[in-house]
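Researcher: Let's do a round of design. I'm pasting the structure tokens now; please hold your answer until I've finished.
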């Protein structure tokens, strides 16, 4: 696999790490550890499965710190970031990873004890489902 392909895959894993939001409508319940998986689809390559473990720590009523580890069959990434609550069940954010020069947008919709995370950038797209651990 070429460097551009690996960089594109890292983009999507980075998006999830940087800005995934946890799976509960209550701000107080965002704290904790979540895990799950999905796929990443680089604009210049094939889809690849991804697995993540994400921990959240409340900073304010609407902002949560994020620490995460994600892996694809070809890469592993550790990252920190923040997420912003924009409505009762939705979170959004931008991300940037200087190590791989990757940036994009993350959107999260909460469904009870699960969350759907979608992410996109000029380098591709991805989607994941996470659950509370």
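Researcher: That's everything. Go ahead.
Model: Designed sequence:
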């Amino acid at each position: 696999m070429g460097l551009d392909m690996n960089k594109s895959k890292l983009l999507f894993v980075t998006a999830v790490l940087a800005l995934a939001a946890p799976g509960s409508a209550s701000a107080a319940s965002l704290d904790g550890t979540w895990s799950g998986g999905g796929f990443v689809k680089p604009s210049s390559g094939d889809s690849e499965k991804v697995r993540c473990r994400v921990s959240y720590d409340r900073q304010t009523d609407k902002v949560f710190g994020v620490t995460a580890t994600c892996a694809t069959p070809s890469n592993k990434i550790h990252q920190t970031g923040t997420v912003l609550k924009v409505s009762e069940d939705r979170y959004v954010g931008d991300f940037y990873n200087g190590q791989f020069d990757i940036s994009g947008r993350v959107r999260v919709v909460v469904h009870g004890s699960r969350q759907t995370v979608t992410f996109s950038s000029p380098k591709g797209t991805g989607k994941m489902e996470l659950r509370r651990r």
